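Researcher: Going back to the complex we discussed earlier. I've cleaned up the inputs and rechecked each line, so this should be the final set. Can you rerun the prediction on the complete assembly and write out the structure?
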Amino acid sequence: MLGEGILKGMAVTAKNFFLSFVSAERLTTIQYPEQRIAPFEAARVFPFLVFDGADWESGMRCVACQICEKECPPKCIFIEKSTDKKPDFVGKPQFYPARFDIDISVCMSCQICVEVCPFEAIKMDTEFELSTDDRFGGLLLDRKQLAKSNDYYHEIHPTEASAVDARLAAEKVKADAKAKAAVSAATAKTAAIAGEGA
Amino acid sequence: MFETHLSETCDQIFILLQHWLVSFLPASWQSAASVLLSVAAIICLFAALFALTTVFERKGLARMQNRIGPNRVGPFGLFQPIADGIKSLTKEDIVPSSADAVVHFLAPVLLVVTVFMGFAVLPMGRNMVLVDLDAGLLFYFAMGASTELAVFMAGWSSRNKYSLLGAMRAVAQMISYEVPLLLSSVAVVMITGSLSLTKIVEAQNQYTWGLPHWYIFTPWGFAGFVMYAIATTAETNRSPFDLPEGESELVAGYHTEYSGFKFALFFLGEYVAMFSISGLGTTLFLGGWSAPCSFLTWIPSWIWFFSKLMLSIFVFIWMRGTLPRLRQDQLMNFAWKFVLPMCLVNLLAAGLWRFMGDGWLRWVVCSTILIAAYAGMGFAEMRRQRLGPRSYRYAE
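Model: Rerun complete. Updated structure for the full complex:
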């Protein structure tokens, strides 16, 4: 019958209207600033820089290779390479970013910087309450504001961070073995030279 | 005796107040002052009602979608309209550089003026009518039709494709639905024999066995009311007939280029048009200010009028919360192929009702004609459109 569907629909909305006053479970929304839902593990908002250990400056994983800067589609990353080098987590001397800025007013949260980073140095944050009254300076985050500890990374993305840690540990083991082999080879070589000399 | 006197006073309280206020003025000014006073009262009352309705609409729609709705400004979010008002007043008023500035300015003003003019003839209570015109209904429809001009002025002067498309749609829709709107009201005029809205209310303000003689309780009145409700929804551009301002395709329709207080005026005009057309529907079919039972007549008449009005507004909001927007061709087909023929059949039914005299026979005959027409037309329409599960040719 014509109009039957309309009446059915009206009944549904009327039911919603009256029952939403009675049962709070029906309400699908939460009262945001007071109530919050737990952040989702897969949530991603803006990138941050991971550092190991306690000191953000010495523990920073970033080696200023500038791949992310080149790959960033909206060009929101600005990196200045350092002139000196500091040892990274395997002990290899590396450059570090003297300046690392992300303009979050430009960033489009695409996560490409995270995908291309070979050093697991840049990851996505879940923090979204970043509004500021200074729309130029306040939205340009420098490396100090971007640096977050590995513990924080574990806190927001536990599964992903564990996988990253395992990968880095394996890499370190490999590098250590390589270094040991190199050292033993060197000692063997010196011993051989010494033996030859004798 | 005292009780009847009290209820009489309550009923006429605004009239008495007006007479008392006017009595301070010299006699030669009194008639002009009383008119001005009524006009000011109507404007203030409906503007306030508009403010309240915006917040209740938002809250009601939210509840229909299992949300809470605005609840931040003041207790339960009731001061939301004040915040909205301040916001719209402090916003920049932008006029596009290529727009026709004069017409662009006049359009919202004309809309609000014509919309408020309709209230002049609406009886909002016993003796509460600003001007009791003999052809009140005609005046009302003349004023209602000129809102189309304001809408078209807005769309044309903005010099924006979305505005113009919105205005074209609005004019096409309003003119198409003006016809069933008038035809459904004509049935009332045929039965009452008068175009005066006060006479129409008086004809319905009678009771048999405690039940009122409202026109909605007759077969032709019920069918007429349904057609009237459909036509008014289209006439006021409310969902599901809100094509002129369909956000998904036209940004905001004819008021795309309006900002600040001019936009607020459009918004006001739309809501006040809704009040006024609901008021007319109440007057024509729901007995105006008359009480729904003979033993409830002690409650002041204006309370009844405004309760019915707000009930109609609730139904408008309810429909908005339920129905999706129609497509342009569906809208036009519905107007010309369903609503208009039903209105014509309804005229026949009203004529038969008028000339068959009292008795049960006219109930049977009129109901049969209308139900048969509805079922037949609905069946034909639904079969022609082959309604059923949708099949997708490309996406699967």
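Model: Worth noting: Helices of chain A lie at 4-22, 56-59, 67-71, 112-116, 143-146, 150-156, 158-197.
Researcher: Good, that matches what I expected from the previous run.
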